[in-house]
Design goal:
906 residues, alpha+beta, Beta-Lactamase, six-stranded antiparallel beta sheet, six-stranded mixed beta sheet, 31 strands, elongated, Histidine kinase, transferase, membrane, HATPase_dom
Length: 906
C-alpha cells in the first residue's frame, strides 16, 4: 500500500507529460517555470485587485467630498426655501458637477424627491438609493443601479442652522468610469508582470542549463539506474575498472580492480607511479594515456588482459578508463581452443581447396600445399601407378609413384617427384597401405623399421632435421589408392590428435582422388572408343593433298568426326559431321554414322542422295532409342559430304545443317560458297540439294565443325571472320601448316568443344593421264578399241598390263553394246591404279554369276573380277558407268585361269 501512491503519482505525471521521460534538468526547469508563472500571475492579480480597491476608495472619497462641499455651499438653504428650488439648484449642481469631475450631483428633499439631476427629466422623481442613514445625519456611500447606469454614490444631509436635516445631497461616479481608471493601469501592471516573468524564466533557464550539464540530461529513473550501475561496477562486476585522470592520478578503482592490483584502501587520489606493488610496465601504460587492446601485463603471479581508452570524447574530462581481466586460468584453455580453431580452419580450407578439378595429380598437389606449413613441414603423396591411368590399385605398396612433393624448403632429401617407389613391407608406408590405417612415428631417430628402406637416404633425412612422420592411407570406397606422408622438422612432433587430423585431411582428399581416377578411366575409355572410330590414317589417293586435326574437348569426348573416302574414277569423298552431345553415347552414334557413310559411299551416290539415306538412318536410330528405356536420348547430327573429281576439277557437295566450307583460292583469297543448307539429320521431310563447284588446281577446301569457330565469348560471324584471316594470304602453305595456323589463331587456349578440321588441296589429272574413246554400237569395233588401248598402255610404259586390260575392256564394251544403249564411251585413267570405265545410256546393271560347265556364256564378269583388283557400277543422270581397277605393277591375281571359254562373250 505504501508503494501504490508513489507509483500512482509517477503514472499520473507520465500521463500529464505525454508518457515521455523528462530529464531531471528539464523537470526542474518546468517546475521552476510553473512557479514563476504562478508567482507572476498572483502578483498581477494582487496589483489588479489593489488598483481596483484604491480606485473605488478614491471614487468614494471624491463623492463624499463633493457631496459635503455642496451641502455646505452658501445659498443652498436659501435655494431650498425658494418657491421653485429646482430652478435655482439645477444650475448650481451642474456647475458643481462639471467643476468637481463627478458624473452627477443630486439634491433631494427629505422624502427623496429630486430637485436636480443631470437628466432634467428625472427631476421630481424619487432618488434611487438609501437615504435613511443620511436623514439620521450620517454620510452614506453605496453602489446602485441608477438612471445613469451602475453608479458609486455618497449621500450627505443638508442641515439648517439649528441642525435639522432639511434636504439631502448625493454625488457620485458611474462604475464604468471607475473601471476605466483600473483599465488604464492594467498595461502597466501586465508590463511589470511580463518583465518579472522574463527575468525569472531567464534565471530559471540558466539554472536548468547548468543542472543539465551536471546531470547529462538524465531522467530521474536513468539517474537512479546510473547510480545503481555505478555501485555494481564498484562492488559487483568481476572485472577490474580504473579511471585515471589526465594528470596520472587514480580517480576511481572498483573492488575487483583493487583486488587484481592489490591496491591499498586510500589509493584513489594518488599518482599511479606512487601506488605500491605495480609492475613498471603497468605503471607506464596507466600513466601514458594511450589506447590499448588486450595487452597482456603481469601483476604478481597474475596474467592480466588490459584495455585502455580515453575519456575525453564528447567533451568529457580528460583521462582514461582501464579494464582489467584475469586471464591466468584461461590462457591454457584459449591456447587449446586456438589450436582446435586452426585445425577446423585447415579442414574447412581443405574442403574448399582440395579437389577443384578431376585431375589426380592436381588433387594430390592441392593436398600437399594445403597442409604446409599449417600442419606439416613436408608432405609427399604417393599413388599406385595404375590409379594415374584410371585403373584399380595394386594390393601392396610395391608400385607407388610419387606425384606430389611440397615443403617449406626445396632442398630436402626426400624421394623426388615422379619416382616409382617400392616400399618394404615393414615400413610405415607399407603397413598403412596394407592395413588401411594411419601410422604414427613420433620420433624417427628412435624408429628402426623405416631405416631399412634406404639407409643412406634415411640418415640424410635425420641430419636434415626431419624428426616425426604420419603415413595416412588415401582410402576411398573401401579401396586404398596410395599414401600421404606428413613430416615435421624442428618443432613439436606429431601426437595422437595430429593423427586424427591427418586422417580427416586425407579422407577429404581421398574422395576427390577417387573421383578423378574414375573420371580418368571413363575419359580414357571414351577417348579410346572415339579415336578407334575415327580414321587412323588417311587413304592413299591422288586427287587431294589432305591434312587434318582432331581435338577432343577438355570436358570429355563428343561426336565430331571426319573421313576421307576414295571413290572409283580417282574421285575422293570428304566428310565432316557432328553429333550433338558428349560422352560415350555421342561417340558411339558417331561411329554408326561414319560406318553408314562408308557403306553408302560404296553405292557411289550423289551427295544429296547419300544425305537422304543418312537422314533415314538417324530417324530409325531415334525411333529405336525412343522405344527403349532412354526415351529422351534423341540423336541430333549435322553432316557435310563432298565429292571431288580430279579429271573435271568439279566438286559436288551437300550439307545437312552443317556449316559451309571455306575455299582458299590460288590467289590467296578466301570465300564461303553459297551452298544450299539442308536440315540437320533426323528431322526428315525436307530434301537436300547438291551444289557443284569448279575448283582451280591448288584450291584448298577447308571443312570444320562448329567447335572451331563458335564459343561463348564470340558469335558465329566473328568466328568465320577469324577463320578467314587465318587462311587468307597463304595460297602456297601446305594443308598441314594451314591446320596449325588455324588452330593457333582460333583456339590458342585449347577447345571447349570437340574440333574436327580437314584441309584438302586439290590436284588435277592431266590429259596425259586420261584417254577417252567414243564406241559405236557395233561388236566389230571392239577389236579396234583393243589396239588403241594397247598403244596407249605402251605409251604409258604399262606393257605388262596390256593383255589383262584388253580382256577387261573387251568384256565391258561387249556387254555395253549387247545390253546397253547409246551413247557408249570408253575412258582409260592412269592413276595409282589403271582404271577402265565403260559408260552407256541404260540403267541396267550386269550381275556376276557362276556359269555351269555346259553353259556357253556367263563367264565374262567372273573373268573381270579375277583380272582386276575391284570393279563396280555407278549411276549418273545420263546412264551408268561400269568401272574396273587394275594394279599398275605385279602379276595377275592368283586363280585367274584363262581358257578359250573366257572369250565366248567377246
Amino acid at each position: 500500500m505504501s508503494d501504490t501512491v508513489p507509483r500512482f503519482r509517477r503514472l499520473l505525471w507520465r500521463s500529464v507529460v505525454g508518457g515521455r521521460q523528462w530529464s531531471v534538468a528539464k523537470q526542474v526547469f518546468l517546475l521552476q517555470a510553473a512557479l514563476v508563472v504562478l508567482l507572476v500571475l498572483s502578483g498581477v492579480l494582487a496589483l489588479f485587485l489593489q488598483s481596483e480597491r484604491d480606485t473605488t476608495a478614491e471614487a468614494r472619497r471624491r463623492s463624499v467630498a463633493v457631496a459635503e462641499t455642496f451641502a455646505h455651499s452658501p445659498g443652498v438653504l436659501q435655494a431650498l426655501a425658494a418657491p421653485k428650488p429646482s430652478k435655482v439648484l439645477q444650475p448650481m449642481t451642474e456647475a458643481g458637477r462639471k467643476a468637481a469631475g463627478v458624473d452627477f450631483i443630486v439634491v433631494m428633499d427629505t422624502h427623496g424627491i429630486r430637485y436636480t439631476h443631470p437628466i432634467p427629466s428625472k427631476i421630481g422623481q424619487r432618488f434611487v438609493g438609501t437615504i435613511g442613514p443620511s436623514l439620521a445625519g450620517q454620510t452614506y456611500t453605496e453602489s446602485v443601479h441608477g438612471p445613469l447606469g451602475r453608479e458609486m454614490q455618497a449621500t450627505v444631509p443638508i442641515e439648517d442652522p439649528r441642525g435639522k436635516v432639511v434636504a439631502l445631497v448625493s454625488a457620485g461616479l458611474k462604475v464604468k468610469h471607475v473601471t476605466s481608471e483600473v483599465d488604464r493601469q492594467i498595461p502597466i501592471i501586465l508590463t511589470a508582470g511580463a518583465g518579472a516573468f522574463v527575468v525569472s524564466t531567464g534565471g530559471t533557464a540558466l539554472v536548468g542549463r547548468r543542472l543539465r550539464r551536471q546531470t547529462h540530461s538524465l531522467a530521474p529513473d536513468e539517474m537512479t539506474r546510473m547510480y545503481e550501475h555505478h555501485d555494481t561496477v564498484l562492488h559487483s562486476v568481476r572485472e577490474g575498472v580504473l579511471i585515471v585522470g589526465d594528470d596520472g592520478r587514480l580517480l576511481l578503482a572498483n573492488d575487483e580492480g583493487r583486488r587484481l592490483l592489490r591496491l591499498p584502501p586510500d589509493a584513489e587520489g594518488s599518482h599511479v607511479s606512487e601506488l605500491p606493488g605495480l609492475d613498471p610496465e603497468t605503471v607506464e601504460l596507466l600513466a601514458s594515456g594511450r589506447e590499448a587492446t588486450d595487452e597482456v601485463l603481469f601483476a604478481g603471479e597474475r596474467l592480466l588482459a588490459v584495455n585502455q581508452r580515453p575519456t575525453d570524447q564528447g567533451g568529457a574530462p580528460g583521462g582514461t578508463v582501464v579494464t582489467l581481466r584475469d586471464t591466468t586460468e584461461l590462457q591454457a584453455l584459449s591456447g587449446r581452443a586456438e589450436v582446435a580453431r586452426e585445425r577446423l580452419k585447415l579442414l574447412y580450407d581443405a574442403g574448399l581447396g582440395v579437389g577443384t578439378s578431376l585431375d589426380v595429380r592436381r588433387t594430390a598437389e592441392e593436398l600437399a600445399r594445403i597442409a604446409v606449413p599449417r600442419f606439416a613441414d613436408y608432405v609427399t603423396v604417393d599413388l599406385d601407378d595404375g590409379v594415374l591411368h584410371g585403373e584399380e590399385p595394386a594390393p601392396t605398396a610395391a608400385t607407388l609413384r610419387r606425384i606430389a612433393v611440397h615443403g617449406i624448403r626445396g632442398d630436402h632429401p626426400l624421394y623426388e617427384q615422379d619416382r616409382l617407389i617400392d616400399f618394404k613391407p615393414f615400413t610405415p608406408q607399407a603397413r598403412g597401405y596394407g592395413s588401411g590405417h594411419s601410422e604414427l612415428v613420433p620420433d624417427l631417430a628412435a624408429a628402426t623399421d623405416w631405416r631399412a628402406q634406404d639407409p643412406e637416404r634415411t640418415e640424410n633425412i635425420l641430419e636434415y632435421g626431419i624428426q616425426s612422420l604420419i603415413s595416412a592411407p588415401i582410402r576411398a570406397r573401401g579401396v586404398v589408392l596410395g599414401i600421404a606422408n606428413f613430416y615435421r622438422a624442428k618443432r613439436d612432433p606429431f601426437d595422437e590428435e595430429d593423427l586424427t587430423l591427418a586422417d580427416e585431411l586425407v579422407a577429404r582428399a581421398a574422395v576427390s582422388v577417387d573421383n578423378a581416377r574414375r573420371y580418368a578411366r571413363e575419359h580414357t575409355l571414351a577417348v579410346t572408343l572415339q579415336r578407334s572410330l575415327l580414321p587412323r590414317a588417311l587413304p592413299e589417293q591422288s586427287a587431294l593433298d589432305v591434312a587434318y586435326r582432331y581435338l577432343p574437348a577438355q570436358s570429355g569426348v563428343s561426336g565430331d568426326w571426319f573421313d576421307v573416302i576414295p571413290l572409283p574414277g580417282s574421285r575422293v569423298a570428304l566428310v565432316v559431321g557432328d553429333v550433338v552431345g558428349h560422352g560415350l553415347h555421342a561417340a558411339a552414334t558417331m561411329g554408326r554414322l561414319r560406318t553408314a557413310v562408308h557403306n553408302f559411299s560404296t553405292l557411289d551416290l550423289p551427295p544429296d542422295e547419300l544425305l537422304s539415306h543418312l537422314d533415314d538412318l538417324v530417324g530409325r536410330i531415334d525411333q529405336d532409342e525412343g522405344d527403349g528405356e532412354d526415351s529422351g536420348a534423341i540423336v541430333g547430327a549435322t553432316c557435310l559430304y563432298a565429292i571431288y573429281d580430279p579429271i573435271t576439277r568439279r566438286c559436288a557437295m551437300a550439307r545437312a545443317g552443317h556449316l559451309a566450307p571455306a575455299l582458299v583460292h590460288p590467289d590467296g583469297s578466301v570465300t564461303y560458297p553459297e551452298l544450299p543448307g539442308g536440315p540437320p539429320l533426323g528431322l526428315g521431310g525436307m530434301p537436300f540439294q547438291t551444289a557443284e563447284l569448279e575448283l582451280a588446281e591448288g584450291t584448298q577446301l577447308v571443312l570444320y565443325t562448329d567447335g572451331l569457330i563458335e564459343d561463348r565469348a564470340r558469335d558465329l560471324d566473328e568466328g568465320l571472320e577469324l577463320l578467314r584471316r587465318a587462311l587468307a594470304g597463304h595460297p602456297d602453305r601446305t594443308p598441314d601448316a594451314s591446320c596449325g595456323a588455324v588452330l593457333e589463331e582460333l583456339l590458342p587456349q585449347g577447345p571447349k568443344d570437340d574440333v574436327a578440321l580437314l584441309v584438302a588441296r586439290t590436284r588435277a589429272l592431266t590429259s596425259e593421264q586420261v584417254a577417252e574413246w567414243d564406241v559405236p554400237a557395233d561388236p566389230s569395233a571392239v577389236a579396234g578399241l583393243r589396239r588403241a588401248v594397247t598403244e596407249r598402255l605402251e605409251e604409258w610404259g604399262l606393257d605388262e598390263q596390256a593383255f589383262g586390260m584388253e580382256l577387261v575392256l573387251s568384256e565391258l564394251v561387249t556387254n555395253a553394246i549387247r545390253y546397253g544403249s547409246e551413247p557408249i564411251g570408253l575412258r582409260l585413267i592412269r592413276d595409282r591404279a589403271l582404271i577402265c570405265e565403260v559408260a552407256d545410256g541404260s540403267n541396267t546393271s550386269p550381275h556376276l554369276r557362276y556359269a555351269a560347265t555346259t553353259d556357253e556364256g556367263g563367264r565374262g564378269l567372273f573373268l573381270v573380277q579375277q583380272m582386276t583388283e575391284r570393279w563396280g557400277t555407278r549411276y549418273s543422270p545420263q546412264g551408268k558407268v561400269i568401272w574396273a581397277e587394275m594394279p599398275l605393277r605385279g602379276a595377275p591375281p592368283v586363280g585367274a585361269e584363262l581358257t578359250l571359254d573366257s572369250f565366248d562373250e567377246i
